[in-house]
Each structure stands twice: as C-alpha cells, then as structure tokens.
Amino acid sequence: MGKWKSLKALFLLGAIIVIIPIAGWEAIEYTSTDDFCTQCHVMKVYRETAFHTAHRAPQVNCKDCHIPQDNVVRMIAYKGYSGAKDIYSNVMGPPEILHTTTMTKGIIQKNCIRCHSATVETIATTDAQRCFECHRAIPHGR
C-alpha cells in the first residue's frame, strides 16, 4: 500500500512538473496576442491604426514592439508588471490615455533596432533620439 502511495505521489509530481510550465507558457503566448492586448477599449484605436501600416498583424504583433524580446525572464517580468499596471489603471479609475514610460521607450527602441538592423547599421543608434521620435506615425498613425 505504501508503494502505491509513493507511485501516485511521484506521478502527481511528474504531472505538475510537466503541466505547470506548459500551461504557464500557453498563458504567456495567449496574453501576447493582439486579440488579448486590444480587449480593453483604450487599446482598440492602436490596433486599428496599426492595421493600416506595414506593422500590422500577422507580420508584426503588439508584443514584437512593446515587450522585451532579448530575454524570456525579462519578457515575463515586464509582461507581469505592465499588465498589472494597465489593469489597475483601468479598473481603479477612468481609462487612461497611455503614455510610454522611459523603460518602455527603451524596449521599443531595442525592438526597432532588432527588426530593422540592416536598415540602421550605418546610423548611430546610441544618440538620445529614438527611432520612433521621427517615425512616430509609422506604427500607429498620428
């Protein structure tokens, strides 16, 4: 009888070790889709404006520009922080007009350079001016 309990416990532990990471990754993937990102009505205008540019889905998704792509741990941490902040702002008060933070501007800049590395290889990208300051209308219109 004790051996049977040990086998059940081992099976349960194995299932947990396999299922939790898979379910967690599926949740991360789902919360990285444009459909998820634009569920809040304040985000719908951003999806609509991006739809009329070269930066539209399925070629480019919200996460490609707005979430760190260089490190999975950083991606998960930022998604948690940013998502919690946005939910809190929209639930606890009137929906905010979104403004990029200094941290978010850095993420967007890195992602611009990551995708357009061939285009910017002869441009000094370390200056204080960021790509989207001149090219603001490209992803979301004016």
Descriptive notes:
It is built from nine helices and no strands. The chain starts with a helix and ends with a helix. The radius of gyration is 20 Å and the shape is elongated. The longest helix has 29 residues, at 2-30. 68% of the residues lie in helices and 0% in strands. It has a single domain, classed as Multiheme cytochrome fold, CATH 1.10.3820.10. It has 142 residues and is an all-alpha fold.
Number of strands: 0
Helix content: 55-70%
SSE pattern, N- to C-terminal: HHHHHHHHH
User: Whole-Å distance between the termini?
Assistant: 70 Å
* Corresponding CATH superfamily: Di-heme elbow motif domain
Mean pLDDT: 82
Based on Cα principal axes, name the global outline: elongated
Which CATH architecture would you pick? Orthogonal Bundle
The major β-sheet equals:
none
Structure annotation, total helices: 9
Oligomer: single chain
